[in-house]
Amino acid sequence: SAGGVNGNPGRLVFYTESVGSDGGPVERMRIDSSGNVGIGVSPFTSARVNSSHLVVGTGSDSPGVTLYGGANAQASLNFGDSNSGTAAYDGGLRYAFGNGSPYLSIHVNGANECMRIDSSGNVGIGTTSPSSALHLSGAATSNSRITLTQTSASLSGTIQQGSSGFALAALGSQNMLFETNGATQMLIDSS
């Protein structure tokens, strides 16, 4: 129904009815007067949903959205803040189906790939061919660094690969401990 029909002013509502059913039509999709779309549920907003433009599911099922592509194609979910120029594509998720080497990648700042999960489950940041469970790569030392922060004590440490060597670093005024089986085997104090 549309525009005031069946008590739905400013909405477009899609119904289905089972063949031979006496139950009457059941609402399946609605486009409200703001252009928001609900499939299986009316468009809504809540503290847990930041956007109501497309809502899929009833809250009591396992809804899904499938992007169906060819064997050597890619399916993408793109994000932009304009409908033209470079801002039309600021980032996105891409799944490449690819002949035995499928992967999921995250893109930011245009077409720049920043992370990839390959078909083995390896995660690459700064590399499109991760060779381990977590593989960081970059031209600058800061791109090849893992920072660990314990927020309640305001302490941080890093593991990094720099141009002059490999480093473990306890940042700030803290000791560096080397432990096995829960016991300290070596301690380097902060002085």
Model description:
The chain is mainly β. Helices cover 0% and strands 42% of the residues. The chain has a six-stranded mixed sheet, with no helix packed on it. A four-stranded mixed sheet has the order 1-2-3-4, with no helix packed on it. The chain has a three-stranded antiparallel sheet with strand order 11-12-13, with no helix packed on it. It starts with 11 loop residues before the first strand and ends with a strand.
Q: What attributes does this structure have?
A:
191 residues, mainly beta, six-stranded mixed beta sheet, 15 strands, 0% helix, disordered N terminus
Give the secondary structure arrangement, pairings included.
Elements: E1 12-16, E2 26-31, E3 37-39, E4 54-56, E5 74-79, E6 91-96, E7 103-108, E8 112-118, E9 123-125, E10 134-136, E11 145-150, E12 155-162, E13 165-171, E14 176-180, E15 183-188
Parallel strand pairs: 3-4, 9-10
Antiparallel strand pairs: 1-2, 2-3, 5-6, 6-7, 7-8, 8-9, 11-12, 12-13, 14-15
State Rg.
26 Å
> Could you spell the SSE succession in H and E letters?
EEEEEEEEEEEEEEE
N-to-C terminal Cα separation, in Å?
A: 76 Å
What kind of sheet is the major sheet?
6 strands, mixed
- Summed over residues and divided by their number, the pLDDT gives a mean of 80
Q: Indicate the low-confidence ranges by residue numbers.
A: 1-5
Structural class: mainly beta
Strand order, biggest sheet?
A: 5-6-7-8-9-10
How many helices? The count is 0
Anisotropy-based shape: elongated
Percent of sequence in beta strands: 35-45%
Binned, the helix content reads under 10%
Total number of β-strand segments?
15
